[in-house]
Amino acid sequence: MRPRDENKELLIRQKAIEMIVTDGLDGFSINKLAKAATVSPATIYIYYKDKDDLITRLCIGVASKMLEYSFEDFSPEMDFAEGLKVQWVNRMKYFINFPIEMEFIEIMRYTHYYEEVNKMLTVSFGSALGPFMERGIQKKQLVPLPFEVYWSIAFAPLYQLMKHHHQGNSYVNNKFELTEGIMMQTLELVLKALKP
């Protein structure tokens, strides 16, 4: 059995993410990946059991990195507005630094490969965002809402702005760039909507 090479494994992961974003899952195969990463298919099987294992582990890896960014400098003890701002700034930073990974996770979100990520997110969000929401409600900084409604109001506007930024335009403007000013203006509106 050949030894693992971290640089080779990183290259395989990067090429796989790029290929899935560019060609979709239907256009993705181990043979095409091997050619793109200039390795043999056998090399890929040193690191991954099969194509499904590779894609599942890619999903978990990208989502874990995104979570790590999202919760940097965040504490469930924070006041609601401050904690939500920290998460928005972190998510925007992740998106700006890793646009391909962000696009990859959006593609994967609606596939069976995302099931393991959902399990991980349930634990992470339950332990961090559950207490954060409860504290916000207790301090009368957040209107009581089901988590799904909260999530839709709290984060969907940011993700939509990120999509417009990535596309470089919006439905009415030929050019759009997500700036910190636009992000903060939108966050203020979201906070108003979530206050009791």
Automatic annotation (TrEMBL):
Residues in the DNA-binding region annotation: 29-48
Keywords attached to this entry: DNA-binding
SUPFAM superfamilies the record matches: Homeodomain-like (SSF46689)
Pfam families: TetR_N
UniProt GO molecular function: DNA binding
Tagged with keyword Transferase: no
InterPro entries: Homeodomain-like_sf, HTH-type_Tx_Regulator, HTH_TetR
Domain named HTH tetR-type: residues: 6-66
Record-linked PANTHER family: ACREF/ENVCD OPERON REPRESSOR-RELATED, ACREF_ENVCD OPERON REPRESSOR-RELATED
Protein known as: HTH tetR-type domain-containing protein
Taxonomy of the source species: Bacteria, Pseudomonadati, Bacteroidota, Sphingobacteriia, Sphingobacteriales
